[in-house]
Amino acid sequence: MIDLAQARRDGEWLRIPLPDPRPEGLADGTHPHDVRRRLIADGILPEKWLNRLFSVGGIRLENGVLSLKAFPPHDWTDHPLLAGRGEPARAEVLHEDDWCLVLFKPAGMPVHPAYPGMGGTLDEAAVRHVLQAGDPLPVRHIHRLDADTSGPVLYAKNDLAQLRLDEAMREKRIERRYLAIVHGAPRPRAGTIDAPIGKDRGRSPRRRVQPGGDRAVTHYETVKEAGDLALVRVRLETGRTHQIRVHFSHIGHPLLGDALYGAPPDSRLSHQALHGESLSFPHPWTGRPVVVEAPRPRWFEDALRRAGLKGKMQACPPSCGHIDRY
C-alpha cells in the first residue's frame, strides 16, 4: 500500500517512496500508463488528475520512488491580474503550505476583478505573493467574500488541490464562520434560517428571498445583545451571494451599516458589519482538518465598542430554533 504521508515536494515534482516489498504492478521500469492504471484502481488519487499528469509526462517510477509532477509553474507573464494600475495589491498570509494558501481579505478589497484591467484585488495579491516567493504556482480562489466583508479566503496552489477543495465545497466540508452586528435581537436567540435566495429583478446587485430561488441555509447564535443591536455568530451551510445579509434582512434584522438591505444610515460605518471569523477545510493532500482564524479588524472592534458589544464573547448554546419563511 502506498503511504501518501511519506510524500515530499521536490521542485515541480512530488516524490513518494514506495514500501518494500513493492506493491504489485509498481516495479521499477513499469510504464507510466500502467502506473496510472494501478493508481486509478487503488482510488487514492483522482482519475481526472492522473490522466492530466500522464498526458504531460508527469508520472515516473524510478529507484523505488513514485514521482508525480504536481507543482508545474504557471506563466503569469502579461496576465490581466497583474495589469491593473495603482499600487500592487498585498494581503496578509494566514496559512500557507505547498498545496494551499489562506489570505486575509480586508473590507473594501474585492476577491476578483469586476472588469478587465481592474487592480487591487485579492486574486492579484495571491499571484504577487507566489511570484515574490519564487514559486509561481497557479493559485485559484475556492470561495469568495463580498467586497466589503473582511475575513479569510482559501486558495488552491495546484490542480490537485483545486480539484479536491472544489469537491469539498460541493460536499459542504468547508466550514465558514462569521461575526455580524445586526439591528434588533433575533428570536430565537439561536437557530437556522432556511429560505431560498434569488436575484432581485431590476434592483441589481440585490438578492432577495423568493420561492424559486436557490436553497440557502444559515445557522446562527446570538453572542451578545446591547440596546437595539446584537452580535451574532453565523455558520454558512450554503454560499449564495449576499446570503447572510439577505437572510438577516429577511427576518427583520439587517446588518449594521448595510443600506442595500434596509439598515438605517450609520455615519460611523460605510459598509455592512460582517467579518469572516474562521475557515476550516480538509487538507487537499492529507485530508486532515485545517482551521484558520482571522483576527477581528480594527473597524469591527470599533463598531463593537460603540455598540456596547465589546467584552468576552460567550456564545450561547445551539438551539433547535428554525426559521423557514418566504
Automatic annotation (TrEMBL):
Domain Pseudouridine synthase RsuA/RluA-like as annotated: residue spans: 101-250
Gene3D superfamilies in alphabetical order: Pseudouridine synthase (3.30.2350.10)
InterPro entries the UniProt entry points to: PsdUridine_synth_cat_dom_sf (IPR020103), PsdUridine_synth_RluC/D (IPR006225), PsdUridine_synth_RsuA/RluA (IPR006145), RluA_PseudoU_synthase (IPR050188)
Molecular functions (GO terms): catalytic activity, acting on RNA; pseudouridine synthase activity; RNA binding
Highest taxon of the lineage: Bacteria
Top-level class of the enzyme under EC nomenclature: isomerase
NCBIfam families for the chain: rluA_subfam
Entry protein name: Pseudouridine synthase
Organism in which the protein naturally occurs: Thermobacillus composti (strain DSM 18247 / JCM 13945 / KWC4)
Organismal lineage: Bacteria, Bacillati, Bacillota, Bacilli, Bacillales
